């Protein structure tokens, strides 16, 4: 039986693929991304997209209500950045506690129930995060955006 060495996108492990294109670990089928044609094993949410293309499309759908914030979030999804910003609905936070207040914002800690991405489809649920709530979010200025970049 011929094996093709590849990384399974579904289970995230370096596994060999059987000749029938199934992962030897989780039996996910290998296919091609409909956007970039790269080989993937199991597509993201049955959209037949690889990880990079799925997240690129999600970035295009960001709508915080403020174009400057949307652009900032999109900019952090460049591969050169180690950390990426996400727009998260407020309902995904629990145990919110204020830890500070400044000139144009208040700072809180909270538990993010969905958590941070740790792989292709997995998340580190119930992650502790810091929230910055703007006092007048309709008037975001370059000083605030500069603070986010730092």
Concise structural overview:
The protein is an alpha+beta fold.
What does this structure look like?
InterPro entries: Kinase-like_dom_sf, Protein_kinase_ATP_BS. It comes from Gigaspora rosea. This protein has 150 residues and is of the alpha+beta class. The protein has 2 domains: 52 residues, no CATH class; 87 residues, no CATH class. The protein is 18% helix and 29% strand. The protein is built from 3 helices and 9 strands, in the order E-E-E-E-H-H-E-E-E-E-E-H. The chain has a 3-stranded antiparallel β-sheet with strand order 5-6-9, with no helix packed on it. Strands 1-2 form a two-stranded antiparallel ribbon. Strands 3-4 form a two-stranded antiparallel sheet. A hairpin with a 5-residue loop joins strand 7 and strand 8. The chain is elongated, with a radius of gyration of 19 Å. The N terminus is likely disordered.
């Amino acid at each position: 039986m011929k094996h093709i060495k590849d990384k399974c996108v579904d289970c995230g492990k370096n596994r060999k693929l059987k000749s029938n294109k199934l992962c030897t670990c989780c039996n996910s089928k290998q296919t091609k991304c409909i956007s970039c044609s790269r080989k993937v094993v199991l597509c993201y949410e049955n959209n037949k997209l690889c990880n990079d293309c799925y997240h690129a499309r999600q970035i295009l759908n960001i709508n915080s209500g403020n174009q400057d914030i949307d652009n900032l979030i999109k900019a952090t999804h460049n591969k050169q950045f180690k950390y990426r910003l996400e727009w998260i609905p407020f309902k995904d936070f629990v145990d919110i506690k204020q830890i500070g207040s400044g000139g144009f914002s208040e700072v809180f800690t909270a538990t993010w129930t969905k958590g941070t991405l740790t792989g292709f489809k997995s998340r580190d649920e119930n992650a502790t995060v810091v929230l910055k709530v703007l006092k007048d979010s309709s008037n975001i200025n370059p000083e605030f955006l500069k603070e986010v970049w730092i």
